[in-house]
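User: I've been trying to design a sequence by hand for this structure and keep getting stuck. Would you show me what you'd pick, starting by listing the structure so we're on the same page?

Assistant: Good idea, let's start from the same input. This is the structure you sent:
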């Protein structure tokens, strides 16, 4: 049988894993210089955002961490690459890639789509029919999930579970495994975050059982567990008014019936009042329990043992929208070998993540120091130029002013001169 040990590493070289691990590294390296010829930008719209090859602002390895980076804000992106077509019938399918939202993403897609080979890449767009969509989607604090969408008989079916994605600025490894026994697994950083059965976690098929439309609750079906005790009777002296005139109240001496009307004593709560009488509750002798609607086999249901299978994969696409750009996609891998995927994950994301983190921490530290020095310098300069003792207030005003539109600058200056004057008064 044809093994689709497809190692499809950034940016586009398709290598059979059986050629050995070393080809993975070398193809990875070589292909970085020819990526533009292997990826096709859709012309469906004229204003798609551009991808560029970049390792970003911080990385673990300047060469190996180069990936496809979105470079323009508030754009749709539509880029794809073709590989030797294959079917995943009777084989596992592993889709894996790394993703880095180094821009601290606010809203945007971070997923890949696997298309059949029949896709016209130059016309790829949001509605182009795909087989599988997999990867993170972030929008505001409300949406931070990993999509796993399968096309089933022409319909896109979303997973019923909520898989949370990473939302920081570092590179993360995302893996989807779909197996011929119709189970699946989603991994982040080579660790399982979700797994189960395709049939249970997606609504591919109508439900196996449905409520019998013929069945009806019998009219005499008694669902009351307790009933009023027919023996229990209200005591004759039960009923007493809730409020009674205050027996201690006395008509004021200066009450003038002509002026004030007839005197009535104020009412008070009746201490003998017993409230509403309710009969004692007893077990209902004809209680039958809650009626359960009987279920029957759903005539619309037909089992499908090949939910996982697709005849034809041929294109991997990045079809997404991003508000703030800067996301880097890298280390794409499609294979039928779960272990190989884990190894590749280790050799790519695993090998550079620590160094990436370190570089980011250094940059943050340098940035912090620089900011500190700038603040200090500004303070000193302001101290020289302006009246002593007002440094702090002025600085705050100025910082706000810098962020404002140019035409507002006048206002800002006014405020600034106003501040110290007020203080002096
Ligand atoms: C990947 O790395 C982890 C952590 O070091 C290790 O436990 C695991 O065995 C590795 N997997 C493979 C397939 O090499």
């Amino acid at each position: 049988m044809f093994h689709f040990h497809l190692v499809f590493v950034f940016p586009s070289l398709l290598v059979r894993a059986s050629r050995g691990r070393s080809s993975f590294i070398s193809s990875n390296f070589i292909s970085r210089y020819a990526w533009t010829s292997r990826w096709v930008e859709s012309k469906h719209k004229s204003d798609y955002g551009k991808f560029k090859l970049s390792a970003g602002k911080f990385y673990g390895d300047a060469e190996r961490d180069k990936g496809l980076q979105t470079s323009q804000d508030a754009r749709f992106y539509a880029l794809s690459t073709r590989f030797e077509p294959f079917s995943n019938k009777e084989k596992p399918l592993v889709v894996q890639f790394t993703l880095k939202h180094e821009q601290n993403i606010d809203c945007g897609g971070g997923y890949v789509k696997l298309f059949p080979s029949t896709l016209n890449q130059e016309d790829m767009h949001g509605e182009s029919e795909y087989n599988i969509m997999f990867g993170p989607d972030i929008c505001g604090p409300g949406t931070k999930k990993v999509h796993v969408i399968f096309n089933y008989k022409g319909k896109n079916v979303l997973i019923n579970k909520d898989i949370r994605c990473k939302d920081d600025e570092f590179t993360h490894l995302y893996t989807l495994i779909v197996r011929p026994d119709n189970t699946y697994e989603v991994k982040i950083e080579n660790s399982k975050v979700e797994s189960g059965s395709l049939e249970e976690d997606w609504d591919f098929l109508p439900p196996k059982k449905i409520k019998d439309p013929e069945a009806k609750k019998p009219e005499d079906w008694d669902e009351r567990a307790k009933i009023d005790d027919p023996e229990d009777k209200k005591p004759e002296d039960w009923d007493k008014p809730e409020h009674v005139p205050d027996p201690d109240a006395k008509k004021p001496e200066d009450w003038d019936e002509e002026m004030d009307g007839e005197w009535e004593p104020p009412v008070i709560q009746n201490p003998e009042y017993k409230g509403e009488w309710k009969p004692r509750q007893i077990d209902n002798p004809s209680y039958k329990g809650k009626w359960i609607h009987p279920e029957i086999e759903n005539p619309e249901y037909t089992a499908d043992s090949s939910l996982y299978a697709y005849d034809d994969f041929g294109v991997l696409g990045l079809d997404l929208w991003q508000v703030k750009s800067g996301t880097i996609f890298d280390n794409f891998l499609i294979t039928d070998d779960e272990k190989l995927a884990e190894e590749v994950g280790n050799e790519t994301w695993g090998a550079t993540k620590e160094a990436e983190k370190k570089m980011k921490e250094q940059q943050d530290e340098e940035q912090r120091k620089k900011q500190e020095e700038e603040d200090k310098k500004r303070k000193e300069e302001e101290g020289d130029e302006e009246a002593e003792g007002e440094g702090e207030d002025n600085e705050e005003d100025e910082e706000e002013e810098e962020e404002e539109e140019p035409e507002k600058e006048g206002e800002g200056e006014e405020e600034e001169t106003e501040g110290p004057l007020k203080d002096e008064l």
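That's my pick for every position. To get oriented when you compare it with your attempt: Residues 1-7, 9-30, 391-425 have pLDDT under 50 and may be disordered. Helices lie at 21-31, 35-38, 198-201, 257-260, 338-385, 391-403, 409-424.
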